[in-house]
Design brief:
396 residues; mainly beta; Neuraminidase; 3% helix
Length: 396
């Protein structure tokens, strides 16, 4: 969770940053044949005046973006992006009317406070994850929530609120994946305690699992550095982020995650994670392997796991023994988290680190959306479109 993020939205579910064959022991995993490696062409598709951390593409091609309140009081939290690049408050202006300052604040229970992620599922919904922690500081009581919006009606259909037993002070709900059965969601808590939150989407109940477990914590001795410069917090403290990137196997049976400040990839049987016994998950955790500093994870449609490598400006895939570069030297900045959106759509995002410290005050850099066209040579899919938001040159 750094001050500036970029958004990657994707077409074919074959891109990501690390490759793992779902339900297959790591030693047996193999890299995709060289002839099937993707190539990319980068084009600007749209640009934003504010920092964004999530993008989602629906089954019918509608594009949504979210703007958190990390370094500025953004005028919109969630918006639909028009074909001409214009932004329309989504689902409406009322839900986007929260402001950090300037008059009485509306209720945080039914307004977006500080949205971190948007995800379109395959059931006609847009899900909005709101950790409600402006500036990644204090959690606004009553604000943490997961909101489901029906795309057919553009109306909020469900709001799942998280109490202090799940979103306590110091937490930051970061990224979310949905079980293919549509009944369960898994959320990483990248905050002070580090955990995986399991959400029953039918009842709205949620519980933290692996709360404080070493697999969900920053690893000792790991420091994030970009271009040789170590990233520090504004007060000079080391940059530490717990469980961040998350990916789910296509059958929903295995969950993968990694702390941003860490180099170890973990996985667990989701049945154990969903068990009523909180100890079951800890007993089922497996170390997949040693990777690198990774911000975003993505499981492709054909069971390949991808990881971002923000220190090296790369997207990599996991081979079962190591990670290998898929995309390198992107000029826009480092890649961040990635999300599978729909059958063959993959959204995600990327972060860009500048300088040694995370700046305070308003981020005046503009954001640009970049479209990647991926030509798949495997013969299964002709072209997949990817969109990546990055900061522009100069500011408004």
């Amino acid at each position: 969770m750094v001050h500036r993020r970029f958004i990657l939205a994707g077409g074919l579910a074959v891109l990501s940053t690390g490759v793992v064959r779902a339900q297959t022991p790591a030693p047996e995993q193999a890299l995709a044949p060289a002839g099937k490696r993707p190539s990319f062409r980068l084009e600007e598709a749209a640009h934003f005046e504010h920092q964004a951390t999530g993008v989602a593409v629906s089954a019918d091609g509608r594009v949504f973006v979210n703007f958190p309140r990390w370094t500025e009081d953004a005028p919109l939290s969630v918006a639909e992006v028009g074909q001409d690049g214009t932004l329309k408050p989504y689902p409406d202006e009322a839900w986007n009317s929260w402001r950090n300052a300037g008059g009485p604040a509306p209720s945080p229970r039914d307004h977006f406070v500080c949205v971190q992620s948007v995800v379109a599922d395959n059931r006609g919904n847009l899900w909005v994850l709101d950790p409600a922690s402006p500036g990644i500081d204090k959690v606004i009581p009553g604000g943490p929530k997961l909101v489901r919006i029906e795309l057919a009606t553009n109306k909020v259909a469900q709001v799942i609120h998280f109490g202090e037993d799940v979103a306590l002070q110091g937490s930051y709900l970061n990224d979310v994946r949905f079980h293919p059965n549509g009944a369960t969601a898994f959320i990483t808590d990248s905050g002070a305690r580090g955990a995986i939150v399991v959400v029953d989407l039918e009842s709205g109940s949620a519980r933290a699992r692996l709360d404080g477990h070493p697999s969900a914590q920053p690893e000792k001795g790991v420091e994030v550095a970009v271009k040789g410069e170590k990233i520090k917090r504004p007060d000079g403290r080391p940059f530490q982020v717990a469980a961040d990137g998350i990916a789910l196997s296509m059958d929903g049976g295995t969950l993968y995650w990694q702390a941003l400040t860490g180099r170890t990839l973990y996985r667990v049987d989701t049945a154990a994670l969903m068990s009523d016994n909180p100890e079951d998950a800890a007993r089922k955790i497996e170390k997949v392997g040693v990777t690198h500093v990774a911000d975003g994870l993505l499981m492709s449609r054909d069971g390949i796991l991808y990881l971002t490598a923000p220190e090296d400006n790369e997207v990599r895939m996991w081979t079962g023994e190591r990670s290998e570069t898929v995309i390198a030297d992107d000029p826009s900045g480092t890649f961040d988290r990635q999300q599978r959106l729909y059958d063959h759509a993959l959204p995600g995002s990327a972060r860009h680190f500048r300088g040694r410290r995370l700046p305070r005050g308003r981020d005046r850099r503009r954001s640009r959306a970049v479209e990647w066209r991926r030509r798949c040579r495997s013969g299964r899919s002709p072209v997949a479109d990817l969109r990546l938001q990055r900061p522009g040159v100069g500011g408004p």
